[in-house]
Amino acid sequence: MKRIVTLLALLSCTVAASAQGWNFQPTPNDTLQSTRVLPDGKVLFQIYAPQASQVSVSGDLPWGKPIVFEKADNGVWKGICEGLDDGVFRYNFTVDGVRVQDPKAPLSAEQSSLLTKGEGYIKDVPHGAVAQRFYWSKNLKEMRRLHVWTPAGYEKSADKLPVLYLIHGGGDNDASWPGVGAAGWILDNLLAEGKMVPMIVVMPNGTINVQNEVPPFAEDMYNSIIPFIEANYNVMADRDHRAVAGLSMGGMETMEVAFSHPDDFAYVWVLSASFAPGQEPAAESARLKVKENISKLNSFRKMVFTQGGPTDIAYQNCKNTRDQLDKDGLKYEYMENAQAGHSWTTWRADLQTLAPTLFR
Fold this sequence. Notes:
Elements: E1 3-6, H1 9-20, E2 35-37, E3 43-48, E4 55-59, E5 69-71, E6 76-81, E7 91-95, E8 98-100, E9 114-117, E10 129-137, E11 142-150, E12 163-167, H2 183-192, E13 200-204, H3 214-232, E14 242-247, H4 249-260, E15 267-271, H5 281-287, H6 294-297, E16 302-306, H7 315-328, E17 333-335, H8 344-354
Parallel strand pairs: 12-13, 12-14, 14-15, 15-16, 16-17
Antiparallel strand pairs: 1-9, 2-3, 3-6, 4-7, 5-6, 7-8, 10-11, 11-13
Helix pairs in contact: 3-4
């Protein structure tokens, strides 16, 4: 398969694996807010670097007022910036002489360098549009962003289209599927080749700065994201024309969304994911009322679990989850679509394989 590979792979894998919780070891970094505006107008900068001996920050910050960082016992470095007016400012940390982007910044996941090897996914076909949209989250009480792919010709069409809600994994954000996930290009190619029906693909931000972000995301999906899409796009607003899919942490969010509202989706993909690691599958199944709603859940037109083969870090957890769901009587399909482990190679292959099965 043609591949997009990320540079800084070791760093990316470490962040993703820890954030998604398959082998979770809690650290202060999990809920760290790297920049905070204090009541007196000063700005607190923070970075988790327990092995570092020196940290500084630079950028569009007041000249002649050096920011002194001190290291706390928990490995978090803190520095106070004074005299900063209201506005938007660039900044970066320097850790032991190496300039680094803020790993906790909201846009950090989309700043990674990408290398395209070979042909990649960009072909000479009609291309759709990928738009950034902002909406107000009622339950999170904040403005949030999502990306929306619309197919080529959508702007001039009066046709109502079905919707796929496609969620990224831990450590990433809503720019990951259209970025390293190559979702727009993959969908352009499938549509041009006549392999899938026209649809709208919504890529929301599943990352929320709380310890357990899965239930709040599901609430945001139903209270804010779906209503926003159905109010602003020409879509079919019924169960048979909605699909939800997610990888890794996004797969947990997918199950939370689909199992807690079994009347609202007809297609569900759980990609390299399971019930929350560290939780008993039976307890999670009971919390989500799987057995209680089994007849509704079994009326999904297609529910699929995928894995990236035995090297996928979610492999055993997914098996444990499926064992429980088998006991509950849930009907689903299972496939190991790519032997590429817990990686974007696997999830891009999943999108290429599964998108053509939707809304037929």
